[in-house]
From TrEMBL:
<dbReference type="Pfam" id="PF00487">
    <property type="entry name" value="FA_desaturase"/>
</dbReference>
<feature type="transmembrane region" description="Helical">
    <location>
        <begin position="40"/>
        <end position="59"/>
    </location>
</feature>
<dbReference type="InterPro" id="IPR005804">
    <property type="entry name" value="FA_desaturase_dom"/>
</dbReference>
<protein>
    <submittedName>
        <fullName>Fatty acid desaturase</fullName>
    </submittedName>
</protein>
<keyword id="KW-1133">Transmembrane helix</keyword>
<feature type="transmembrane region" description="Helical">
    <location>
        <begin position="230"/>
        <end position="251"/>
    </location>
</feature>
<feature type="domain" description="Fatty acid desaturase">
    <location>
        <begin position="71"/>
        <end position="334"/>
    </location>
</feature>
<keyword id="KW-0812">Transmembrane</keyword>
<keyword id="KW-0472">Membrane</keyword>
<feature type="transmembrane region" description="Helical">
    <location>
        <begin position="65"/>
        <end position="83"/>
    </location>
</feature>
């Protein structure tokens, strides 16, 4: 007889499972009612493709207007940051195969466009595996996607760096590994995750920062600097890339990671318990961040209960879904998570 002690995985109570099923059923029914009321919602592939076409065309248009000097750089950056937030929502839906499920060419073309317009992120095909695992084991130690967005890390310089520049954070984290073997392994992993587009994306960004810091330092010290014709041409291309695609994505990614990392609980979440995985964050002061991640904090919790609804339908069901979630005890605007490093368990000082 085997007397070895085994660590048992916590099991959802009947009440909790009933609550989860009830939330899913009510929100699903509401979204189905909306589909029946608005026939246009039945054309999901067309809507997804149209949003993608609009977003990509918008980025090309603003980029052209900026290059021709017809709009200022800051306006191009803000518009494209908004457009890439739409593209992120499309990618998230595509990862769940919500568009062109039976038409691989159209599906993969949309995935490719998502990657080209957001090159600082790993390939969406690679992210699919991580994201599916995130849904299965959200908030647990194996939830790599949550860790990447800083969930579970205490607030400080390290977490802020991770939010602002994931590439530098990854390299610093690798170099701080205890052994040379680990340093090399983690560095290769960071490079592989970012290859090839991320390396070009971050490389342009660092050249941009370095060049303009150098010219600024020269002007401060009174040193004349005259770039060569090749350098001037290269920097004109890099400057354009920063305004059109890099800076917009840095703004979007920071806002998304800031919101996402705080709505997800991490570290003491019961496995498969959707009631503990996320909260709703829709306080008014979050709107500057929500603006550049398409209201993610207000609607992502819905997605953990109902996966099959595309992003625009989550926006339409939000008011109803929030009532259902609140009745079931899902948390709203739990800002104590900042102090608890995303732990679900509240302390006396939080209440």
């Amino acid at each position: 007889m085997n007397t070895t002690n085994k660590v048992s995985t916590p099991i959802l109570s009947k009440k909790e499972q009933t609550q989860i099923n009830d939330i899913t059923q009510k929100i699903t029914q509401h979204s189905n009612d909306l589909r029946a009321r608005y026939k246009l919602l039945g054309y999901q592939n067309v809507i997804g493709a149209s949003v993608m076409a609009f977003s990509v065309a918008g980025m090309v248009t603003t980029g052209t207007l900026y290059v021709k000097g017809l709009i200022p750089g800051w306006l191009c950056i803000l518009i494209n940051a908004l457009l890439t937030s739409l593209i992120h929502e499309l990618e998230h839906d595509l990862i769940h195969r919500l568009y062109f499920r039976k038409q691989p060419f159209a599906h993969n073309l949309m995935m490719l466009l998502c990657w080209i317009t957001r090159p600082g992120m790993p390939s969406p095909w690679l992210r699919r595996e991580l994201h599916f695992h995130h849904h299965k084991e959200s908030g647990t130690d194996t939830d790599v996607e949550a860790w990447i967005t800083t969930s579970g890390s205490p607030w400080g310089a390290k977490r802020f760096l991770k939010l602002v520049d994931g590439f530098i954070f990854g390299i610093v984290n690798a170099l701080c590994a205890p052994t040379w073997r680990e340093k090399i392994r983690l560095t290769i992993k960071v490079l592989r995750l970012n290859a090839p587009m991320g390396l070009l994306y971050w490389g342009c960004w660092y050249v941009f920062l370095g060049y303009h810091f150098y010219t600024w330092a020269c002007s401060i010290m009174g040193v004349a600097y005259q770039p060569s014709s090749i350098t001037a041409l290269l920097m004109s291309v890099i400057n354009g890339a920063v305004v059109i695609i890099i800076a917009p994505n840095i703004i979007r990614q920071f806002c998304l990671f800031f919101i996402s990392s705080n709505i997800h609980y991490y570290g003491d979440v019961m496995p498969r318990n959707a009631l503990q995985q996320t909260q709703v964050m829709n306080h008014w002061w979050l709107w500057p961040f929500q603006l550049f991640c398409f209201n993610f904090g207000s609607t992502h919790c819905i997605h953990h209960f109902v996966v099959k609804d595309p992003f625009y339908l989550r926006q339409m069901t939000a008011a109803f879904a929030h009532k259902v979630l609140a009745e079931a005890g899902v948390r709203f605007n739990d800002f104590g998570t900042y102090k608890r490093a995303n732990r679900y368990t509240q302390t006396q000082t939080d209440t």
